[in-house]
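Example S7 (structure tokens).
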């Protein structure tokens, strides 16, 4: 997880002291860097200790790799294990390499299984085996069980530590059980009611438990109308369910309907951020690049799409080449031609953004898809009419030639209409064929609008002006 370190402060009206909502102030950051550069390990540990794990992670991501590595060596076992959960994957991999497997295993002891999975699932097989072998038996079994589920599934996302009670217990018995020390769960919002076969019967929000008299039975206060998540459900679907129903926590069941874990809202927020970032980077054609990515990784992530764009650009240029004689005789065509292509590309990108968002939020069923396509067609039609009129008027004022103005207006109308249709249909078609619409849509749509725009504009010019 990556935290924004925007410093937010306010004045205390009583004594004028500056209160920071983030403990990592520029002064503290400079002091930590200075301590590391001077080799003052004890001072570096003292400065890091009061910081929230999220602030520690943010600092490690900002530091140059060499200074970050030295700081990790200084901290050793004083590093808060939770800090690892806030790091992005690239930085975390570098930090783990500096720490070593034994130190990493020690840091994982007190973390919940969902956080452990988030950290270890990207490790190499040999490294993972060493880390698992160093974990306590009980935790190792839980972690290995979670790793057996598919990548990006609810099983990988869930926390195995959960609170379960039988329905015949009273509220008092349940509270005493929670206070007994037998519960080692770090965070929970729900208590699950299960039968002897561990099949869920209901759930009790923690707030409801604490506000009920001790003599009441759990059966009387549990909520029987609750939602359970299949263990193999994709994490994107999990996020959609949490968003749709406003859930804070939910139980996870296996194929036999036995309760095997729970998912909490903090993990779902991470999924939403991760999926949104993936879609944004894919739309830009830069893959999973980050500030810490190596030059080779950055090149690999961008080269493939640049090659595709080069091919499509050559295709559009080939269309222009067909009409090179026409362009040579009328300079106005060379001036106006980029306007048609640019407007079509931008209109197509706008429609793609709406379509990809609707697909990501699972908002499109058979009825809403038809309505969506029809609405975007009408928008494209109206935009085409409006901007065709504007483009024609500008062309007439610019070159004082009514024929060029008419050709410009017709080409603009046709290209905006095609942009609206392809921006809608291409993402839907890619989705049906199993291709990620966020990755490939823009290439197809921009190529189509360029080819159509140039063909209509130059074709009409060659037909009527020459």
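Recovered sequence:
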């Amino acid at each position: 997880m990556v935290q924004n370190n925007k410093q937010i402060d306010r004045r205390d009206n009583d004594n004028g002291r500056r209160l920071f909502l983030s403990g990592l102030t520029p002064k503290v950051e400079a002091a930590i860097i200075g301590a590391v550069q001077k080799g003052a390990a004890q001072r570096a540990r003292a400065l890091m200790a009061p910081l929230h794990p999220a602030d520690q992670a943010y600092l490690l991501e900002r530091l140059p790799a060499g200074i970050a590595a030295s700081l990790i060596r200084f901290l050793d076992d004083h590093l808060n294990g939770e800090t690892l959960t806030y790091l992005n994957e690239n930085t975390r991999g570098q930090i783990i390499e500096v720490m070593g497997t034994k130190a990493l295993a020690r840091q994982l002891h007190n973390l919940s299984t969902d956080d452990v999975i988030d950290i270890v699932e990207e490790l190499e097989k040999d490294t993972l085996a060493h880390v698992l072998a160093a974990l306590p038996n009980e935790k190792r079994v839980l972690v290995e069980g979670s790793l057996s589920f598919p990548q990006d599934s609810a099983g990988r996302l869930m926390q195995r530590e959960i609170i379960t009670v039988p329905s015949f217990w009273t509220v008092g018995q349940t509270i005493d059980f929670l206070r007994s020390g037998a519960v080692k769960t770090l965070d929970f919002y729900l208590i699950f009611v299960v039968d002897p076969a561990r099949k869920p019967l209901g759930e009790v929000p923690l707030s409801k438990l604490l506000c009920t008299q001790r003599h009441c039975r759990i059966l009387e206060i549990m909520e029987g109308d609750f939602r359970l998540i299949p263990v193999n459900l994709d994490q994107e679907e999990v996020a959609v369910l949490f968003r749709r129903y406003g859930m804070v926590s939910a139980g996870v069941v296996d194929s036999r309907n036995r309760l095997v874990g729970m998912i909490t809202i903090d993990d779902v927020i991470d999924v939403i951020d991760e999926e949104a970032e993936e879609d944004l980077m894919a739309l830009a054609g830069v893959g999973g690049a980050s500030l810490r990515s190596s030059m080779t990784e950055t090149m690999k992530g961008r080269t493939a799409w640049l090659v595709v764009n080069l091919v499509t650009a050559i295709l559009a240029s080939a269309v222009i080449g067909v009409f090179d004689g026409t362009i040579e005789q009328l300079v106005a065509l060379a001036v106006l031609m980029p306007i048609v292509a640019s407007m079509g590309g931008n209109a197509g990108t706008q429609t793609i953004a709406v379509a990809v968002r609707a697909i990501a939020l699972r908002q499109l069923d058979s009825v809403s898809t038809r309505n969506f396509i029809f609405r975007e067609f009408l928008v494209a039609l109206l935009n085409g009419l409006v901007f065709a009129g504007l483009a024609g008027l500008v062309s007439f004022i610019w070159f004082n030639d009514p024929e060029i103005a008419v050709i410009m207006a017709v080409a603009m109308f046709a290209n905006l209409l095609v942009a609206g249709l392809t921006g809608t249909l291409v993402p839907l078609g890619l989705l049906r064929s199993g291709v990620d619409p966020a990755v490939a849509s823009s290439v197809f749509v921009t190529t189509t609008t360029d080819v159509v725009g140039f063909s209509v504009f130059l074709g009409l010019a060659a037909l009527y002006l020459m």
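Notes on this example. The domain at 9-154 is CATH 1.25.60.10 (MgtE N-terminal fold).
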